[in-house]
Design brief:
19 helices, single chain, alpha/beta, 52% helix
Length: 429
């Protein structure tokens, strides 16, 4: 698909809604950083945002291209992973003045999300110069942040400018290239959850967007060898796929096509890691492994010969939250209280639609198939087990859902297996 056909126009869809994604400049290809000057013609005063790693890649070149339009540089000097929290937001805001009309980031996920959030909050535009094909949020209107210790996604706007220079991106660390691949393969899980939520909760579903994301996922799956070889055409295909999927999230005004149970588990590992000062893997790598894990969970459900629901007491659940989430346990409880998640009884719907539920779950690739896709990219599930341990992974399977107000297979799994947690063991691939 020519992604430009989806830009800057109303798409009157058969799903009953009109979709739109506005991005003034989208350039992906070799040498396209040179087009930055043209892309910035409409802007007069630009705040540049980067961290120690990303600035070293092309920061001086970008500063030169900006010339007298450069208002200031907000540089996060750390070379450690940047946390998109209140402190990071405040640091960017200290560099703003009333003349700035564009916040331009150099980086990938975190830098992009911070620029989108701050620019939206201040009523100006944002742009991003991509440094790695590591995640699918470049063109999305959501900004994933960690506020009050919780992973939250704020609705903002898509960047007005996206520059993906393959001469830069193809030289990204292999871990970030694998991360982008893993983030895309995770769409098998998120798409399945979208269908499931449509069936169980009546959530809006768009077949047009679903088909775009699924086709893109399968195209990247078949290109893995060339991607790992850093073939410029394959890296460009990966980058275009990541941008395209981000655009679909903007088009449907929800992250649903690209984020489901696999992302909820990834967010669990990130948040619990930050709380306890423990290691967590980069986002797309986590998504790769949690895609295998959620596929395993779907298989466990499909193996059931009959429905037998399990009931965990509210006291037991709250004790688990305090043990796992520690300083943000009250925030988790508040979120689920406001969402009314545990007071809503979905068991009658599960009984009524059991065969349709199983049919949807069976559409997702198996855990073994997902594992093979990840191994083809050099990602081994044993890394997940070694990094987090079986106890934390089990906690994620039962309580990762509580970080979000969104239905997924995690809720069905919890309802069926929460009382049997000590009996279950996942296969370490």
């Amino acid at each position: 698909m020519n992604i430009r056909n989806l830009l800057n126009r109303d798409i009157v869809c058969e799903c009953g809604r009109t979709h739109r994604c506005d991005i003034s400049t989208l350039e992906i290809g070799e040498g396209v950083l040179d087009k930055l000057t043209y892309a910035l013609e409409a802007y007069k005063s630009i705040l540049l945002v980067a961290d120690g790693n990303t600035y070293s890649i092309c920061g001086e070149r970008v500063v030169s291209l900006l010339g007298n339009k450069l208002s200031a540089v907000c540089l996060f000097e750390t070379t450690e992973p940047l946390v998109p929290d209140e402190q990071a937001i405040a640091k960017i805001e200290t560099h703003l003045n009333c003349a700035v009309d564009l916040i331009l980031g150099i980086g990938s996920g975190v830098i992009n999300d911070l620029c989108k959030y701050v620019s939206f909050d201040h009523g100006i535009k944002s742009g991003i110069i991509a440094t790695a094909p590591s995640m699918d949020g470049y063109a999305s209107s959501g900004a994933a942040l960690i506020l009050c210790g919780m992973k939250v996604t704020h609705t903002t706007h898509a960047p007005d400018i996206i520059i993906g220079d393959i001469d830069i991106i193809k030289n990204a660390p292999m871990s970030m290239i694998r991360s982008g691949y893993g983030d895309i393969i995770g769409k098998y899980s998120s798409l399945n959850d979208w269908k499931l939520s449509h069936l169980i909760r009546g959530e809006h579903f768009c077949q047009y967007i679903y088909d775009i994301v699924l086709e893109t996922t399968e195209d990247i799956r078949d290109s893995v060898e060339r991607i790992l070889a850093r073939d410029p055409e394959a890296i460009e295909k990966l980058m275009r796929a990541l941008v395209l999927i981000g655009m679909t999230l903007t088009l449907v005004e929800t992250t649903r096509p690209g984020s489901g149970s696999e992302h909820h588990l990834s967010h669990f590992f990130e948040i619990v890691g930050l709380i306890n000062h423990q290691k967590h893997l980069i986002h797309g790598t986590d998504v790769a492994y949690t895609t295998i894990l959620t596929a395993f969970m779907r298989e466990q459900i499909l193996k059931l010969e009959k429905i037998e629901f399990c009931e965990e007491s509210a006291d037991s659940r709250k004790q688990a939250w305090k043990r796992i989430y520690v300083s943000v346990a009250d925030e988790v409880e508040k979120l689920q209280e406001e969402a009314n998640s545990y007071r809503e009884d979905l068991k009658p719907i599960y009984r009524e639609k059991w065969e349709a539920i199983k049919a949807i779950l069976a559409e997702c690739p198996t855990a073994l198939e997902c594992d093979r896709m990840m191994k083809a990219a050099g990602l081994n599930f044993s890394e997940c087990v070694e990094t987090y341990g079986e106890k934390k992974i089990h906690d994620a399977m039962f309580y990762g859902k509580d970080l979000k107000n969104r239905y997924s297979v995690l809720w069905l799994y919890y309802t069926l297996f929460s009382g049997k947690s000590e009996e279950l063991s996942f296969q370490a691939f």
